[in-house]
Structures are given as C-alpha cells and as structure tokens.
From TrEMBL:
It comes from Azospirillum isscasi. Coiled coil: none annotated. This is Glutathione S-transferase family protein. Signal peptide: none annotated. Residues 4-86 form the GST N-terminal domain. InterPro entries: Glutathione-S-Trfase_C_sf, Glutathione_S-Trfase_N, Thioredoxin-like_sf. It comes from the Bacteria.
C-alpha cells in the first residue's frame, strides 16, 4: 500500500460495498481491510472503533490520513475529487437537484430499514419478528415509489450514470432481493443489471456477493 492509497474498512456483503464500488469506479488505488465480525465484540470491532467510534462501515481512510464515514458523504467527496468517474452530476447539470434529493432520500429512508429490520432483536425485546417484517414491507413501498419516479433511461437519473445506480446495484442483493425487483420494479431491476455488468465493478460484486452478476 502506498501513501496515496485510500484504505476502506468493510466486510463482504455489507454496506461497505457501496464505497468499494465507488472507489473502483474512480479507478484509484485502494486497499480493503476486512473487518468481518465488526458488529460483535472482538478484534475486528476494536480495530474499527479505533478509527470510527460509532463502529460502522464503510469507514474510509483518505490518502492524507483523514477518516471519512457515511456512504453519501463518501460519494460526494469522491465525486468532487474524481469528477471523471461520474458519481454525481456537476453543479450546473439539470440532474443535480434530483441527484442530491435521491441520494439523501436513499440514506435517510431506505438505509434505516436495514438498520432496524435486519436485526430487530437489537431494538425490541417483544416480537422482534414483527419489526423485521414491517421494515421489509416498508422498504418495498419505498422501492415502489422510486420505481414510479423513473423515466425511460438506463439509469436512475435517466441518461446519466451516478452513484445512485451503485446503491441500486448493491441493494438488490438484500431483502426483498432480485426476484422481487424483477417482478415489481422492472426499471430498477434493469438499472441493477446494467451496473452489475460494468467491467470495472464486476470484481467488487463478486468479492462481496459471489457468483455471476
């Protein structure tokens, strides 16, 4: 690893795949430090806590040693530093407002359904299964809303690729999973298929989810 590398702390199949795919899209040198098991007490969690006291991934160490967290913030930072990657429309682009709105919508609305729905026993003592099921049901309504907002282009923003497509490509692997998207959200399913097939990102998807795109 050189002094110019980014260093990403993450775990296969978790939310760190978002930052990993963005870094790959940017074509910059980076190293992935696997902290699988970070969500339980142990060496991996302690290693992560030394950088991010919240114990969350992705945690990205920038080439100058600064620590960056929160996937949306990482997306915006990388978009500024590596504009040729197309992670975000430029400030004067007509799609800019929609991009910012949907990026914040994604992390403020969709992402919390995983936080509370995938491990409901952490948040409620009685009937955690009900919370989990409710979170997945709400997640479906959110995806259906996004599906209704899409036009006829190949990407979430129409003809312009962005980090939003990376979010979709990763999240179709999580509940309600790809078969549900194919049946109920054909436009989003199409976005996912295209972003999963991008040659620069295929190794990222394979490392995190295994199998073919």
């Amino acid at each position: 690893m050189s002094a110019q590398d980014y260093t990403l702390y993450g775990a296969p199949g978790w939310g760190s795949v978002l930052a990993e795919a963005m870094l790959a899209r940017c074509g910059v040198p980076f190293t992935v430090v696997d902290v699988q098991g970070f969500d339980a007490e142990g060496p991996a969690r302690q290693r992560l806590l030394a950088l991010n006291p919240l114990g969350q991934i992705p945690t990205l160490v920038l080439p100058d040693g600064a620590v960056m967290t929160e996937s949306a913030a990482i997306a915006l930072l990388l978009a500024e530093r590596h504009p040729d990657a197309g992670l975000a429309p430029p400030p004067d682009a007509p799609e800019r407002a929609a991009f910012l709105r949907l990026l914040v919508w994604m992390v403020a609305n969709v992402y919390p359904t995983f936080t509370y729905g995938d491990y409901p026993e952490r948040w409620v003592k009685e009937s955690p299964g009900d919370l989990g099921a409710s979170a997945v049901a709400h997640r479906k309504t959110l995806w259906l809303w996004l599906e209704s907002q899409m036009g006829g282009g190949p990407w979430v923003l129409g003809e312009r690729f962005s980090a939003l497509d990376i979010y979709v490509g990763a999240m179709v692997h999580w509940r309600p999973r790809r078969d549900w998207f194919a049946e109920h959200c054909p436009n989003l399913s199409g976005v996912a298929g295209r972003v999963l097939a991008l040659p620069t990102l295929v190794p990222v998807w394979h490392r995190n989810f295994g199998g073919a795109p």
